[in-house]
Design brief:
6-stranded antiparallel β-sheet, Heat Shock Protein 90, about 200 residues, single chain, about 25% strand, alpha+beta, 6 strands, globular
C-alpha cells in the first residue's frame, strides 16, 4: 500500500473540508501572518473584487471597505506582536458574507495588562447611542490623547458609528499566560441603510 498516496488524499480531503467549512460560514478571505501596508492594500482590493462579484450597492461597499481598513489599522497599531522597525504587525484577518451580513473578523496578540483598558473602552463604545458616538468621535478628534501605539481610540469609535452595531469581542488566553488573543468581529448589513 502506498502510504504517501493515502496521506496526499487525506490532506486533500482535509483541505477540501476546511474550504467547505469556510464557505459554509461565508468566509471568502482568510489570512494569518504579517500585516504590512502592502498586505493591507492587497486585502482591500481582493475584498473589493469579491463585493463586485456579488453586485453590492456602492454604499455597502464603501462601508465594508471603510470597516476593513479601520480594523486592519487597529490591528497593526495595537498588536503587541509588532515590529516597529519594519512597521509590520502579526494577526489573523477574515472577511465574508452570510445571510446578508458582511463579517470582518480580526485577531491579534495583546498583553494581559492591556486587556482591562481595552475592554472598558469597547464596553463604553457599545453603551453609547448613535448621537453619543458622534459626540465622542468629535471630542476625541479635538482633545484625544495619542497612545504609545500612535492612536487616539478613533478607529473603534468610527467602526461603531459607521455600522450602527455593537462591537463583538473576546480575549482568548495564550499558553504563556502573559498574552491573549484579542478577537474583534464587526457586522455590516448588505442593506445600505440597515446599520444606520
Amino acid at each position: 500500500m502506498n502510504t504517501t498516496m493515502s496521506a496526499d488524499i487525506n490532506f486533500i480531503k482535509s483541505v477540501l473540508s476546511l474550504h467547505d467549512e469556510m464557505a459554509s460560514n461565508g468566509f471568502s478571505l482568510v489570512y494569518e501572518g504579517e500585516f504590512s501596508h502592502e498586505v493591507m492594500k492587497m486585502f482591500t482590493s481582493m475584498a473589493e473584487r469579491d463585493m463586485d462579484k456579488t453586485n453590492e450597492e456602492k454604499a455597502v461597499k464603501r462601508k465594508v471597505f471603510h470597516v476593513m481598513v479601520e480594523c486592519l489599522q487597529n490591528m497593526t497599531k495595537h498588536s503587541d506582536d509588532f515590529d516597529e522597525e519594519e512597521r509590520i504587525g502579526n494577526g489573523l484577518f477574515i472577511v465574508g458574507k452570510k445571510d446578508g451580513i458582511w463579517n470582518v473578523i480580526t485577531a491579534n496578540k495583546i498583553l494581559k495588562e492591556r486587556i482591562d483598558d481595552l475592554k472598558k473602552s469597547i464596553d463604553n463604545i457599545n453603551s453609547l447611542s448613535k448621537d453619543e458616538l458622534n459626540l465622542l468621535y468629535k471630542k476625541q478628534i479635538r482633545e484625544g490623547s495619542i497612545s504609545e501605539k500612535g492612536g487616539a481610540g478613533l478607529g473603534l469609535i468610527d467602526i461603531a458609528r459607521k455600522t450602527g452595531r455593537k462591537l463583538d469581542y473576546q480575549f482568548l488566553p495564550l499558553e504563556d499566560n502573559k498574552n491573549f488573543f484579542f478577537l474583534l468581529k464587526v457586522r455590516i448589513s448588505s442593506k445600505p441603510d440597515a446599520d444606520e
